[in-house]
């Protein structure tokens, strides 16, 4: 299928790459989203709405930057995603991207949990408390220290 | 908008699936219990607002390209 993007024009997307968020993403429209890779070596993806051409948010996998990061998913949320165990899940966090790298922040308090097999997603409130919604991203790891082979995800991603 | 008075132990039913119970009143704090379907998101309002603000700020990013590590650079600084 194709999705329309204000950012990238028309993007060709495999049908099985479409992620469904039955509860949506907090404060953003639409239920169907697609991961879009702009550059294969980048640790960042765009989580792009499949329904709203103007809506896309930068995301990354938090462990690339915060080795000791913990996510606790409540039983109810795990159930709603059809997750049987941690091995079924992939976690992304929303990134606030700016012109200057040192101003990038990441939301570690509201991670996005995906059931890779079922292509289901949900933004949760991390039950492991104490994390910031606006944590400076490069607090522990510099961009050039993120190994490029670690940036690949098991979630199918479209290419911009 | 509905405003009603409840005592500890009393409940409020919202629709077919949601029950809110006033568990305890202590000073200016009220402990409440919420029974709702697993797929219905429930958040503390201020947390919801904070996450909403971050999502909307992320969606409003004017950055045209997300940064990548520079393999030719051994330094500690990347460029956006």
Structural features, described:
The complex is a heterodimer of chains A (160) and B (80). In chain A, 4% of the residues lie in helices and 32% in strands. With 160 residues, chain A is mainly beta. In chain A, strands 3, 4, 5, 6, 7, 8, 9, 10, 11 and 12 form a ten-stranded mixed β-sheet that branches. Chain A has a two-stranded antiparallel ribbon with strand order 1-2. With 80 residues, chain B is an alpha+beta fold. Helices cover 19% and strands 25% of the residues of chain B. In chain B, strands 1-2-3 form a three-stranded antiparallel β-sheet, with no helix packed on it. In chain B, strand 1 and strand 2 (18-26) form a beta hairpin. In chain B, 11% of the residues are buried. The model of chain B is unreliable at 75-79 (pLDDT under 50). At the A-B interface, strand 5, strand 6, helix 1 and strand 7 of A face helix 1 of B.
CA gyration radius of chain B, whole angstroms: 23 Å
Runs of chain A in which pLDDT lies below 50 for 5 or more consecutive residues are none
- What is the helix content of chain A? under 10%
Straight-line N-to-C gap of chain B: 48 Å
- Helix residue percentage of chain B: 10-25%
Oligomer: heterodimer
**Strand order in the sheet with the most strands of chain B:** 1-2-3
The secondary-structure element order of chain A is EEEEEEHEEEEEE
Q: Strand pairing plus helix content of chain A: what structural class?
A: mainly beta
Work out the strand percent of chain B.
25-35%
Q: What general outline of chain A do the C-alpha atoms trace?
A: globular
Query: Uncertain runs of chain B with pLDDT below 50, 5 residues or more?
Result: 75-79
User: Most extensive chain contact?
Assistant: A-B, 47 and 37 residues
First-to-last CA distance of chain A: 14 Å
Mean pLDDT of chain B: 89
Structural class based on helices, strands and sheet pairing of chain B = alpha+beta
Order of helix and strand elements from N to C terminus of chain B = EEEH
Total number of helices of chain A: 1
Rg of chain A is 15 Å
Sum up the overall morphology of chain B in one term.
elongated
